[in-house]
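Data deposition worksheet. Section B asks for the primary sequence of the deposited chain exactly as it was used as input, without tags or linkers unless they were present during the calculation. Section C holds the resulting structure in C-alpha cell form. Section D is free text for depositor observations; keep each observation to a single sentence. Incomplete worksheets are returned to the depositor.
Section A, Depositor: J.P.
Section B:
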Amino acid sequence: MKPIANRCRDVLRVSWLACAALGLGCARPPGPEAVFGEAQPHALEDPAMRDLLSTVDWNADPCQSFYAFACGGLQPSDRGNSTEDVMYARLDDALWDFIKAPASDPPHDPATTALRTWLEACRDDDARTAAGVAALEPLRASIDAVVDPPSFMAAVGTLGAHGVGSVLGLTDYPHPDGAWAPYVYGPFEPVASSEVNEADPAFAAAVDRIGSALRVLDPTEDTADRARAVLRFEAQLVAAAHEGDVGVEVRERAEHPAWAPYAAGLGHALPQRTRVHDGGYLDAVPRIAAAASPEVLRDYLRWRLLVGLGLDLPLAMQFDGPFEAGTATRCASEVGRWFAPQLSAAQGPLGLGEQERQRAHAMFERIRDARFAELDGTGLDPELAVAMRSILGGLQPRFGWIDHPWGELPTPSPSDHLANVLSMRAFEVRRSLAPDYHAGNGHGWDEDQLTAAAWNDPFDHTLNFGLGILQPPLFDGSRPAWIDMATIGWVMGHEMYHSLGPSHLGANLEHQGLNAAAAAPLVELTQCLDRTYAAHGVALPYPLDDDGLHLEETISDLAGRRLALGLYRESLPSPPPSAAGLSADALFFIGSARLFCMVPNPDDPRTSVAHHRIDAALATMPEFADAFACEPEDPMRIEHDCAPW
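Section C:
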C-alpha cells in the first residue's frame, strides 16, 4: 500500500461517456487539484470540518478501500457502533430531555403527560423486568375460551384488536382508488413450512422455541408434543394460503364464513373500505380449525400471542432470552413509530426548525433541477424525455413532516410497561380502523418519522426524509451548506433516482401513457454495469437478479452522488475548503460515506452491506479516482464503457 503522502497525481486516462441521461456517466474530470499535502491531519480549528473528518482512518489507503479509509476511524462506544446508532442516540437524548422537562415546559397537556409516563415506564428497569402477567389476562381469557372454530376466530379478533396477528393480520394498504385503507390478510408471519419434516433439525429447533414460549404461560406441563401439534396446524394454514394465492381475489367480507366471529372479537366497526386478501384462504380456516383439537387451537394462539408481542414482553417473559441491549433506543423508536404526531405537537419539531426545513427543501429542488438539466440534450426519445420529466416533476418531498395527532391517548401506567404496550397497540388499531384515520398529508399515522431512514414511496410518489435522518452528522442547518450537500444531498438524489430506476421506471412510464418496454435501455445499462463489476471481482450487497435489478441501490448510490457532487462544487466558497491535505472533492466523498459508516464486525451482516454500498459505487466514478489519485491497478478505480440511453 502506498502511503497517502507519497501518492502522485497522475493524469487520469479513463474512459468517459456523456451519461447525463441516467446520472451515471463518467464525466471528464476537472483540472488537477492538490490532494494530499501531508500524511497526517493537521490541527483543525473548524468544528464542522473536524466532525467531517472524525471517522477517517489516516493509515488506510482510500484507493484500496474507501470504506476502510472514510469509516475506519470510527470507534465503538456507549453511543453505538455506527453513524445510525449515533443518530438514534441523539434522538433518544432529545426524548429523555423531554421527559425531564418541567411540567410547564412544554405545556402540561394530557398527551404530554401520557407520553412522559409511557417513556418513563418503558425505560424503567423494574417496569420492564416485572413479569406483568396480569396485563395479559384479558387476552389469555379469550384464548382459554376457545372450544370450536367460531370461538377460535373470536379470539383471533381479540388478539388483533391489540395488534397481535395470528390467523389474520391487519395492516394498511392502498385501496384500488389510491387511498389507504385497512387490509386483512393471513396467515400472519408464518414460521413453518407447508411441508412438515419432523426429521429436519429446523423442526426440532422450532419445537424447542415454541415449547419455551408455551412454558412462559404454562410452566408446569411438558410442551414438546404440544409444540409439534402447533407446527402441524400452522403448516396447514400456510398450505391453504399458498393454494389460495393461485387466484388472489378481493371479496366482500360478509361472504367469508369466518368473518363474523373475527369481527366480533375485534370489537370495532370496520370501515366499508376494508379489504380482505382472500384467494380461498379464509374459506379454508374454519375447516382446518374444525379438524384440530381445542387444545391445539389454544396453544397456537398462546404461541402467536408471545411471538406477536416479541421484544415488548418483560425481560422475564422473553422466551428467546432477555433482550437487554438498547432498551432506551427501542423506547425512542417505538414512540416515534406510534406517536410521532403527538410527540411533535408536545415537543416541537425535534431540532428541525424552519431554517433546516427551508434548507432541506431548497436542496431538494436544486437536485431536481439538476436532474431535469441532465435530461436535456442527451439524445433521448423526445416522448420518453417528456415522460421522465413528468415523473420527476410529480415527486413530492416530505421533510420531518408533522401533522395533527389523531385521537386521545390512553392513560398509561407508571409501573407496568406491558400494560402500556397493550393499551398503545390497541390505540394504534383503533386509529387505523377509524373513518378519519388519514393524516392531513393523506398518509397513515403509522409511518415512522423518527427513524434514521429515507425512502421512495412508489404508491404516492413521495420522497420521505423523516426527522430521524435529518440529524447530525448528516444534516445540520447551523453548518456550511456545502457539508449538508455532501452528507445528505446525495441521499436526496438517490431517492429521486429510484423513480427512474429499473424497479419503478416501467410502472411509472405506463402511468405516463408509455409502454413499460421503454425502460429497456436502463435494464441494458444495469446488465453492462453488472458485467463490469463481475469482471473486476466486485461483490455487490444484494442478490443477483436476471434483469440486473439487484443493482438498483448501487446505481442509485452512484447517480445520487454524481448529482450532488456538481451542486456541491457550486456551493463551495472561494477559495474552496481543504483540510489535512485533502481537496474539496475528497471532502465531498468522505461526507457522502458517513451514512454507512460503522465499526467493522464480521458477525454483523450490515458490515458487508455498508462496505459495498460505499466502495462499489465510488469505484466507477472517475471524479473519485481523480480526487484521491487512484491508479489504474487500484481496486477503487474501475473503468467502464457502459453505454447510456
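Section D:
The longest strand covers residues 169-174.
Strands lie at 169-174, 180-185, 275-276, 396-399, 454-457, 462-465.
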